[in-house]
User: Fold this.
Amino acid sequence: MADSETVYRQAPYIEERSEQLLASVFGDPNAVKEANESDEAFNLRRYGRAGVGRQIPKYEIAGFSPDQEAAFNLARSGIGGFAPFMNLGASTLGKGVTTALSGAPLIEQGSQALSESDINQYFNPYQEYVTDAIRKQGQMAQNKLAGAATRAGAFGGSRFGVAEGQLAGDVAAKIGQAQAQGYTQALQAAENAKKRMLYGGQGLGSLGTQIGQLGGAQTGMGLDFQRAGLTDINSLLGIGALNQQLAQRGLDAGRMTEEARQLEPFTRLGYASDILQGQPSSYTTYTDRYGGGGASVSPFSQIAGLGLAGLGAYNKGLFG
Assistant:
């Protein structure tokens, strides 16, 4: 009894292209190296794109840009740059405190009430000479008055007594006036001295405050100097970061370009595969009977043999 076998086949041109596509992907295990053929070309023909490994592009990282390096150096050199200003400010502030404290005793003395000793030290040292001079002048006037009264025969009379009393009163008044004037002058001088102490102490306190403010300003200059340096550093870091990003993108673009170049053959293979899969189905039916009178070769075996022959004939290109 004869058996029959039905085979469905694609159009010959599609089968041919499919075999070439498979050869490009998986190669021809029976390929033999030809003369003047490079090892790379032979391996690609024998093992196909899927069987030959590719050199994967390495990832690269962009280093620091010159601006970033300059920022790092500036940051290192600026560490502690404010210290001299801080030390100077602390010293100046200390001087201000000392100056202000030196005025405290003067303020304390100037605030106290005047004492007799305070006034006495400002009395005119010639005050006694003035008093003695007034007394001598009074005595001389007394002697003159007595002489005149004697010559007039009125010495010891009532008129002489009245005149003598008036003279003594005038002398006493002048002495009192001179002493009062000396006391007033001494009192004024003592009061002025107290005021000078008070104002001097207040002035020293104000001066100490100003010196302390100067010390604070010097300290602030150190901090401002540090902040200005940080501003420059941040500016350099910002500019350097942009340059570094640009350099990194350049490295990434180079790697992507190399990877795309290596993957380009696979892209073409995928494109060809899509085209073949999108072809309309046009199958041809073959029916063969075998097994009756003699040994017949299976059509599948015949197709396989034709396929291997096609693979061996394909050498270069996608579809050649």
Notes: Residues 11 and 282 are 6 Å apart (CA to CA). The first helix runs from residue 12 to 26.
